Amino acid sequence: MSLDVETLLDRRRLRQKVTVWRVLAVVAAVIAVGFLLTAGGGNSGWFAEKQIARVSITGTITESRKQLKMLESIEQAEHVEAVLVYINSPGGTTTGGEALYEGLRRIAKNKPVVAQFGTVAASAGYIVGLATDHIVARGNSITGSVGVIVQWPELSGLLEKIGVDMKTVKSGTLKAEPNPLTTAGPEALEVTAEMVADGFAWFQGLVETRRGIKVDDVPGLKKGRIFSGRQAKKFNLVDEIGGEKEAVSWLEKERGVTADLKIVDWQPAVPNQWGLSAMASRTAHSLVAGARDGISKALTSGGTISTLSLDGLASVWHPREN
What we know:
Blueprint: H1 2-38, E1 51-61, H2 65-76, E2 80-93, H3 94-108, E3 113-122, H4 124-130, E4 134-137, E5 142-144, H5 156-161, H6 186-211, E6 226-228, H7 229-234, E7 240-241, H8 244-255, E8 262-265, H9 276-300, E9 314-316
Parallel strand pairs: 1-2, 1-8, 2-3, 3-4, 3-5, 4-7
Antiparallel strand pairs: 2-9, 5-6
Helix pairs in contact: 2-3, 3-4
């Protein structure tokens, strides 16, 4: 009798174990299917639909590894037929524009890429537009501002007034020059001007190669002037006046992209926000950012030092306040 009871208990335990494993297997399968369907915010996965990827380049342009990684993903995504680049940026670092330009040109080798200019697509923003096969701008979009700039505040007079005397020991006369804490000498200004000229020559070469024009033939272009979309169209700096509808129409009519494809916004990958290390990092960042922003506001009040936060050569346009 006791043997039968033990046998029944063993069978019951076995059934419970099998049931648990079956439930876990079903849960795992559901999670896996959900991941395949929604991975990358609907942009990737086994069941991702054919689409036009929309990439938004807004605000100040800098070199972002996450953004460049996103462009690599678009390049490799078989379900992406074309790319629509929406640009609403006054520019940023020349290097940032260069990196985006190269990433988009790699995509353009196998997929058509079109740009749509928003309110402003100037300087490095225009560099990004040059990477595309076709540029559509609003009639009143601000574009152009072809050029490179290096700016720094000179604080030596202020330091002298408050009794601060800066002492420096360095390996060469051009090390850390130009320096906002000292007056830049002729040699420092000369090498800085040479670097700006080199970046400008590169920028001009892009314009002439990609737009099929001569910079000298466009009034004011070499001086860094801005243009409205209509003016830019007149000088072949852009191809068409319009918005997203016109950009998509060009993809369909001129590049054979499937009609009425869904336009899907692609975003750079977002790291895990809930891990202990991520939370600690955000806390530290908030403390540092708070102090930095306070200093930045003090220095940039009145808009006189608006490009301090941009390291390196800058291709950026901003209107004067006065």
